[in-house]
Amino acid sequence: MMKEQGMMPSAENVPERDEKIEQLVEGMTKKRDREEVKIEKILKDLEVRCSLPEGAVEIISNRVKELREMEVNEGALRKTSRWFVLDALANYYDDRIGIANFNFLKAELLELVDDNLIESREGSFEDLSKSAMIFFDVDGLKSVNDHALGKHDAGDLFLKKIADVFNGGKTAMWLRESGIKFYPARRSGDEFMCAIKASKSLNEKSDFVGIDGENVKDRTFIEYVIEKIQEDVGSLDMDDVQDFSNDEQKAAYDKIGFDTDSWPRDFRFKASISGGVAILKDALRDVLDGENIEGKGYEELLVNVIEKMISISDKEMSVNKEKDQERRAESEDEKERLTESIYRSGRSDQEKIDSLTEENENLKKEDKKKKEIIARQEAELEELRRKLAEK
Q1: More confident residue, 27 or 206
Q2: Mean pLDDT across 359-385
């Protein structure tokens, strides 16, 4: 996939640039040693496992221990512990959608990058290509919020179903069962992110066994993973989000310019997502372009690397999203074209035209009333002037 930022250097510059990356990694890890940064301390409030941080669990355990030493009764202890857990959970989990939140992802990325820097210094710098961040953007949420009968409740259900794919869908389970670290989270709105760490390079073409036991030839593993997650999302049953066999639901689309009577009888609403990836090694390349690296501490450089991973993956996702939209709009498959039209119907041009037309008509009515009032007042003034002149 194409990158707008963090483009791969030309073949003739690769050895020189890789050497600079090695120097950066070595310099960062030396800073880590010299500053005696205790990564456990940095992760105390960030390190996340499942949906609850280990650091928070330790804090809660210590608080419970203190309460026991104060001889607090068991009932009060259980109640207080529950509030401790709920408070910690709220910081790392999106309860409304049912998936870890952006704090979770930042924590996982922080540990993932730190681990990789240490491993690459002690082993091979090629390990830096085994970790990545994937940025996903959901298509069609605005159209669901605007036109589904359930409005924003339908929008939440739409996102929950997609979150289930990341939490325990076919591809997510296959990755974990294969020993690959995979940490999904929701950033905000219709954006999801995943941290991933494999045992081999993610962005080099190779042959491998796929999710269904098929032999995959000459493909990058990360592209294959994104494609399979997209397939998982596309196969979701979305009839409870928008059911196009429901006349009331179809009428909502007729109202904004669609002719639902002409739709294929078996047409159903489907979800889709677009993805972009940032390989750790690419993020380090971009950090090299920054200023005053020597003047920064290890923790600050660590954060810079994570910011670059987010930025690179976001930009690539945007490029791929435009391609996905164009592909659906120009597809020979009528259902694909119709799906793209529905995605674009969130605040469609026709709705804007209707809204502006209505607003313009209201202004004209108000203007007409004002003109009538002015004309009446002018007539009254003229009559008063005439009577005054006669006196």
Answers
A1: 206
A2: 71
Q: Which of 158, 147, 117 is nearest to 23 (CA)?
A: 117
194 DSSP β-pair partners: 134, 184
Given a contact cutoff of 8 angstroms between Cβ atoms, the answer to whether 348 and 146 are in contact is: no
Using one digit for the tens of pLDDT, what is the confidence trace for 309-341? 999 999 999 999 999 999 999 999 999 999 999
Single pTM value for the model: 0.73
Res 7: pLDDT = 36
Burial of 171: CB neighbours in 10 Å, binned 0-12, 13-18, 19+: buried
Strands 93-94 and 99-100: antiparallel
Contact between 116 and 21 (Cβ < 8 Å): no
Q: Distance from first CA to last CA of the chain, Å, rounded?
A: 91
- Determine the residue type at 284: L
Separation CA 69–CA 87 (nearest Å): 22
Cα distance between residue 52 and residue 366, in whole Å: 58
Q: Give 369: exposed, middle or buried? Use CB within 10 Å, 0-12, 13-18, 19+.
A: exposed
Which residue type is seen at 360?
N
Q: What sign does the CA torsion over 238, 240, 245, 251 have?
A: negative
The pair of structure tokens assigned to 83 is: 């509030």
Q: 3-state secondary structure string, the chain? A: CCCCCCCCCCHHHHHHHHHHHHHHHHHHHHHHHHCCCCHHHHCCCCCEECCEEHHHHHHHHHHHHHHHHCCCCHHHHHHHHHHHHHHHHHHHEECCCCEECHHHHHHHHHHHHHHHHHHHHHCCHHHHHCEEEEEEEEECHHHHHHHCCCHHHHHHHHHHHHHHHHHHCHHHHHHHHCCCEEEEEEEECCEEEEEEECCCCCCCEEEEECCCCCEEEEEEHHHHHHHHHHHHHHCCCCCCCCCCCCHHHHHHHHCCCCCHHHCCCCCCCCCEEEEEEEEHHHHHHHHHCCCCCCCCCHHHHHHHHHHHHHHHHHHHHHHHHHHHHHHHHCCCCHHHHHHHHHHCCCCCHHHHHHHHHHHHHHHHHHHHHHHHHHHHHHHHHHHHHHHHHHC
